[in-house]
Amino acid sequence: MSAAADGADRHASLAALHDEITSCRACPRLVEWREEVARVKRAAFRDQEYWGRPIPGFGDPDARVLVLGLAPAANGANRTGRVFTGDRSGDFLFASMHRTGLANQPTSVSADDGLALTGAWVTAAVRCAPPANKPTPAERDTCLPFSVRELALLPDLGVVVCLGGFAWDAALRLRRAAGAPKPAGSRRPAFGHDVLFADGGWLPMLGCYHPSQQNTFTGKLTEPMIDAVFTHAAELVGLA
């Protein structure tokens, strides 16, 4: 198969996965919550139509860097229909990706705002907005096959940037589900900011504090800190 044909086939498969994810109703609690939020709406967005469905991944199909988050925000991606779009976490994330050459603009306010990623794909371990931003283990595991299939359609990936400990744990589960060998040693690889775990058995994992307001407003995560992570990731895959 030619490179062009292979690329077209992957694009079609990613589109089909997109449609399957957005129509999923496997987790009753998440379905009820995401649809309630979309119906009631936050006052500031009362004139907007909410997406109110699961959120697929977004970015460059030839991505070298995978950015893995926790779950959509109830009034962010659950409203706009695009991962990390329409909330403060996304503002902080995409501004950094713009500064480090992975995004064409620093803002992400709607699914049609012109944002395009270069060399990067952004996704979440759980595809629906969960109550209190806390998915259950069963909900997390129900979404796992979507992530396995998504990664299989992104064959050029060279590193996973894990936004927070939940995403780090999800990446380790994704590693096992993808058939990678168990990490050597008795200790489980520990999450840390700008900490790299790379044993050659799967994609290298690079930790980053989640760009939540709890972290960014308190200074636990600053612009130079997140920029350093994306610069590190770009260097690891030859984009810097």
From TrEMBL:
<keyword id="KW-0227">DNA damage</keyword>
<keyword id="KW-0479">Metal-binding</keyword>
<dbReference type="GO" id="GO:0004844">
    <property type="term" value="F:uracil DNA N-glycosylase activity"/>
</dbReference>
<dbReference type="InterPro" id="IPR044147">
    <property type="entry name" value="UdgB-like"/>
</dbReference>
<feature type="domain" description="Uracil-DNA glycosylase-like">
    <location>
        <begin position="56"/>
        <end position="230"/>
    </location>
</feature>
<keyword id="KW-0234">DNA repair</keyword>
<dbReference type="Pfam" id="PF03167">
    <property type="entry name" value="UDG"/>
</dbReference>
<comment type="similarity">
    <text>Belongs to the uracil-DNA glycosylase (UDG) superfamily. Type 5 (UDGb) family.</text>
</comment>
<dbReference type="InterPro" id="IPR036895">
    <property type="entry name" value="Uracil-DNA_glycosylase-like_sf"/>
</dbReference>
<keyword id="KW-0004">4Fe-4S</keyword>
<dbReference type="InterPro" id="IPR005122">
    <property type="entry name" value="Uracil-DNA_glycosylase-like"/>
</dbReference>
<keyword id="KW-0408">Iron</keyword>
<keyword id="KW-0378">Hydrolase</keyword>
<dbReference type="GO" id="GO:0051539">
    <property type="term" value="F:4 iron, 4 sulfur cluster binding"/>
</dbReference>
<dbReference type="InterPro" id="IPR051536">
    <property type="entry name" value="UDG_Type-4/5"/>
</dbReference>
<protein>
    <recommendedName>
        <fullName>Type-5 uracil-DNA glycosylase</fullName>
    </recommendedName>
</protein>
<dbReference type="GO" id="GO:0006284">
    <property type="term" value="P:base-excision repair"/>
</dbReference>
<keyword id="KW-0411">Iron-sulfur</keyword>
<dbReference type="GO" id="GO:0046872">
    <property type="term" value="F:metal ion binding"/>
</dbReference>
<keyword id="KW-0326">Glycosidase</keyword>
<dbReference type="GO" id="GO:0033958">
    <property type="term" value="F:DNA-deoxyinosine glycosylase activity"/>
</dbReference>
